[in-house]
Each structure stands twice: as C-alpha cells, then as structure tokens.
Amino acid sequence: MVNSIEELNHVLQQGCNAIEADVTFAGNGTALYAYHGIPCDCFRVCDKSEKITDFLAYSRDITTPGHKNYTKRYSLLILDLKTSKLSDDHVKFTAGKSFAKLMSKYFFNGGKSDSHLNVLMSVDRVNDRRFIDGFNTEFRTSERMNNKIGWEISYDDPISVIENLWFDVRVIKNIWYSDGITNCLSLFRDQTRLIDIIRKRDGCNNARNPYCIRKVYQWTVDYKPQFRLALRRKVDGILTNEPRKLSEVLEESEFQNSFRLAQPEDDPWSVFKRN
Predict the structure, then answer these.
(1) Helix, strand or coil for residue 36?
(2) What is the Cα 200 distance to its own chain's centre?
(3) Where are the chain's structural domains?
C-alpha cells in the first residue's frame, strides 16, 4: 500500500522492486486518487494520498531511462482498483473506459513512453467484469500498451469462477492470481486456496490453454517465517510492508540460489519454469 509520491520514494529506497497503489473512484466512475483510508494494514498510516494522474506520471518518469530520477529496480506497479464500490455495471463500464484514457495519457504518454514499468490491473471481483470490458473497449487497438498490462481478480472468488471469466473475456492473456488478507490476520489465514492456485499454475499447459496463470503472489506477509514458507511453496511474489526483512530472507542459504527480485528485463507475463 503506497499511495503518495513521498511513500513511493521511501519504499524504493528500502529496496522494493514493485509497489501496490489503491485507486479510488468518484460516483460517476472517474478515477481520482491513490488512496486507501481507514481501516488498512496494521502499523500503517492509512490516509496518505496523491492525485492518481500525478502518481502515474511520476511512476512513468522515474522508470524512463535517461530521466534524472531514473530508478531501474522499480519493475511493477500493482493498481488495486476499488471497483466493487462502483454502483452498477453501467458505471463500471464507464469507469473502465475513463481509466483506459487516463492510463494512455498519464502513464503511456499517448503511446510515446519509454518507461520499462509494467502494470498489473487488480480488479476486486469477477462481478466487476464490466470495468474490464470498458477498459478493453478503449484500449484494444494498442498492442504495445497492452503488452505492458496484466490483470488479476484480487478478492477470493472461487478459482473456477475466475478461470471462466478469462475464458469469457478472451482477449486477456497476461493473467496473475493472488491470495491473502491484511497483515493483521495473515498469520491465521488458511493456505489451501493459495496452494491450489500454485498447483494450477504449475499444471497448466500454455500451448493448449492461453489463459494459464502466469504468476502467483501472496499478500500481505510481514514476518520472516511467513516469507520462508511462501518461498518454499514457490510463489512468484510477496506483497509486504517489510521489504528489508524479505531481502534478508532472500539472502539466506536456502533461498539465495533459487530466488531473486525481478528486474525490468524479466517478463512478468510468462510462467517461470522451475526445476
């Protein structure tokens, strides 16, 4: 949860290679702010905010080679889109179209951006599909920009229902799955769903099924024993408020030859083949 430019700079200095920002909408579907509000994760300040247009433009700038503040390690921006708060399907569709235009202007600079940053669009639930439809209606003509974008459903809808969504949408292949809960409760969360998602990722044949899971991440994990368990389960990513602790675990002998932080040249939309 990083919802201001000040916070963004701070976590990048701590060694983060990816961040998650929350996107809030007006009643008519217009995206307004990077903002979460109360309640949020334990031990966090919940009320930081930034105009979403400023946040996107800044993220674009600092990931563009040659910019004075270029930050190579910043590889992925997860946009936690608060779509479930939109009132109905019409507003969701309108919001999707509007957000596509906003992304095109402020993040992709009308298709002229050279930023290396990829974006994961995180929609709350399967029944927020009309946001996805609206976005794709506006965005489908730009292959270059679409190649920088992936999608996920962030809430714990049944896995089979999420799978059916991507089969129905058809045009989206850059698919991530996640599982988790706020750090206040993550120690007590049952891991069955996460394990099932990882099994589906590993058992899917990309040649036969273009909608295979590309990556799996767990959220929100802040303690070293949890990091170790997640890595042993072969997650692709971990959302945490404690990046330095995670970096320390990655340097442990058990993990240092098997895991590293992703870099801009790594493909976030391909399945990583493990031994």
Answers:
(1) coil
(2) 19
(3) 5-250
Q: Helix, strand or coil for residue 200?
A: helix
- Residues 154-177 have a mean pLDDT of 97
Q: What is the mean pLDDT of residues 84-98?
A: 97
Task: Give the Cα separation of 66 and 10 in Å (integer).
Answer: 21
Q: Is the pLDDT of residue 144 over 90?
A: no
Structure-derived torsion over alpha carbons of residues 238, 84, 127, 99, reported in degrees to the nearest 10: -80
| Distance separating alpha carbons of residues 112 and 212, to the nearest angstrom | 30
Own/partner contacts of 124-128, CB < 8 Å, gap of 24 or more, are 124/81, 124/82, 124/83, 124/84, 124/153, 124/154, 124/155, 125/83, 125/84, 125/153, 125/155, 125/157, 126/153, 126/157, 126/161, 126/162, 126/165, 128/83, 128/84, 128/86, 128/92
What type of residue is 120?
Answer: L
Q: Is the pTM of this model over 0.85?
A: yes
With 80 as the cut, is the pLDDT of residue 140 above it?
Answer: no
CATH superfamily of 5-250: Phosphatidylinositol (PI) phosphodiesterase (3.20.20.190)
d(CA 162, CA 270): 19
How is residue 28 written in tokens? Answer: 């008519």
Q: Longest Cα pair distance anywhere in the chain, in angstroms?
A: 53
